[in-house]
Design a protein that fits this description.
There is one protein chain. The chain is of the alpha+beta class and 236 residues long. It is built from five helices and nine strands, in the order H-H-E-E-E-H-E-E-H-E-E-E-H-E. The chain has helices at residues 7-13, 15-47, 95-100, 127-164, 211-215; strands at residues 49-61, 72-80, 86-93, 106-112, 115-121, 166-182, 185-195, 201-205, 222-227.
């Protein structure tokens, strides 16, 4: 059975490299979002002004499959800022409050005098969202970094061994399911045994294989193994 030797083939099989890379990107993004939300909360608390607004419209955004997971009840309101300009805003409210509010109903809103477009209902807060973003970002970023670096080292090692490794005959010991699924398809791995140039026996494990690739192998099959002459326990 031919082995994939191209860089693209190896990268395609490196599930944890892609998984770690995704977390490494998402984590810092969540951290930035959380920091921005936290700074905005502080700005609203320190500089926000309260104004009287009136409801000008009501709307419902119903839950949709593949979209919003729940129905949102919104009101659009209008208020006059410190500079005398009229400003409109939109906010989500609970169902009971939405039912009670009518066009012309009064509301209290908080806004930033230097940027009236940044406004919200008085008493509303984004601290929960900021904390969630900061916590998730703080978890995803280091986990992604560790997975990405370890997987990148593994890919580099495999490329090096395929290019420079000592060839030996290996025998398949086990073809088993892994704990990893890609696109809801469980991946497989092959465990094998080989002897190095000193006659010592070692065991190794393949990268993730699709069920179709794994079906081509059986216990007792032989295949070419390449190992590191200085560290014979490392092989592909």
């Amino acid at each position: 059975m031919p082995e994939p030797s191209s860089v693209l083939s190896i990268l395609r099989r490196s599930f944890f490299l892609w998984f770690g890379g995704l977390f490494l990107v998402v984590g810092p993004v969540l951290l930035v979002i959380g920091i921005q939300e936290a700074l905005q909360e502080q700005q609203f608390q320190r500089q926000g002004s309260v104004a009287r607004a009136v409801v000008v419209a009501k709307s419902i955004r119903r839950a949709e499959r593949g979209g919003d997971s729940r129905t949102t009840y919104e009101v659009r309101y209008r208020f006059t800022g410190a500079d005398g300009q009229e400003v409109e805003g939109t906010a989500g409210v609970g169902f009971e409050a939405w039912e009670q509010l009518e066009d012309g109903s009064p509301l209290q809103v908080r806004y930033l005098p230097q940027a009236p477009q940044s406004n919200r209902l008085a008493g509303a807060s984004e601290w929960d969202s900021a904390v969630v973003s900061l916590v998730l970002g703080g978890i995803f970023a280091p986990i992604g970094g560790v997975l990405f670096i370890r997987s990148l080292r593994r890919v580099w090692r495999e490329l090096r061994l395929r290019r420079e490794g000592v060839a030996a005959e290996g025998m398949v010991l086990q073809v088993r399911r892994s704990n990893v699924a890609i696109n809801k398809v469980t991946q497989w791995q092959i465990r094998y045994r080989y002897r190095d140039h000193m006659g010592r026996t070692h065991e190794g494990e393949s990268d993730l294989l699709s069920p179709e690739e794994a079906d081509a192998w059986s216990v007792g099959d032989t295949a070419t193994v390449r190992y590191d002459r200085r560290r014979p326990e490392e092989s592909v």
